[in-house]
Write a structure and sequence with these properties.
disordered N terminus, two-stranded antiparallel sheet, elongated, mainly alpha, 11 helices, 274 residues
Length: 274
């Protein structure tokens, strides 16, 4: 048997041509638009954006989610082949994804801010640690609340809520439509204003307990002037803060569960077709 001709080593041209035509056409463009909407989730929203997850792994997960959502997003849609129109739709997809991811970033920002308020009251703000999820310096309670929030988020199946909400965005703002910017801006502003109120709500038991402790030691310092209040007060405040934090964990769990639903609803409510 003689040597094979180079053309004999090639696969049949029919299936390959069909696949290439499919990739070069509507499906590939739709996948790019879906990926543009998924990507901000892995850049802004914990725990998807955690620095503990290598960037390559986050990229692979984002591509996998985009592949799974592409058939849903492409239902009844025809993506224009014009490069300029496609670039505009990519920008619109990034805006929708950023608005959706921002609501979850605000939720975890409120949780971390509550920990920072507790650190300030207990005196832990003087010694910072590296938060493993964000990679930034933060206090003891701030890091603890961040880890607790992400753990609760995973236990209650928060990632499934997020993915279902992300799939829902393709119904509210179809793949080939542009969002209403005024609605996105007003929704982001409304969500942002809730950070401090939510943080105070989470940290309220600790702040009240520490305020009562300070008042008690103020009275003691007046009754017993020779007592070194600073030497006794700091360990007492730390003990009170740890005790209240441990007792308020069920409350924080319920808060995160309810706020997750509220965040998804707020994110979807801000999405309107322009």
């Amino acid at each position: 048997m003689g040597p094979l001709a180079p053309s004999a080593l090639l696969l049949p041209a029919g299936p390959i041509t069909h696949v290439l035509d499919e990739l070069a056409g509507n499906s590939l463009a739709g996948f790019i638009l879906v990926l543009a909407r998924v990507t901000p989730l892995f850049l802004l929203a914990p725990p998807f954006s955690s620095t503990m997850i290598p960037p390559r792994v986050r990229g692979v997960i984002a591509v996998g989610i985009a592949i799974g959502l592409t058939p849903i997003a492409m239902h009844g849609q025809h993506v224009p082949g014009d490069a300029l129109a496609l670039a505009g739709l990519v920008i619109a997809g990034l805006l929708v994804g950023m608005a959706f991811a921002f609501s979850f970033a605000v939720l975890f920002g409120a949780i971390e801010t509550a920990g920072a308020l507790a650190d300030l009251g207990a005196g832990f703000s003087y010694g910072n640690l590296i938060n493993p999820f964000s990679g930034t310096e933060s206090g003891v309670f701030s890091s603890f609340y961040s880890l607790l929030g992400i753990a609760i988020f995973l236990v209650i199946g928060g990632e499934a809520w997020v993915l279902r909400g992300l799939a829902r965005t393709f119904q509210l703002v179809p793949l080939t439509s542009e969002p209403r910017l005024t609605s996105l801006i007003s929704g982001a502003e409304q969500v942002f204003t809730t950070i401090f109120a939510s943080a105070v709500e989470i940290a309220a038991p600790i702040l009240i307990a520490l305020l009562i402790t300070d008042a008690a030691f103020g009275v003691i310092s007046r009754v017993v002037p020779q007592l070194n209040v600073f030497a006794v007060g700091f360990p007492a405040k730390v003990a009170v803060a740890i005790l209240i934090v441990g007792a308020s964990i069920p409350f924080v769990s319920g808060f995160i569960s309810s706020q997750l639903t509220t965040s998804v609803s707020a994110a979807l409510g801000a999405l309107r077709v322009g």
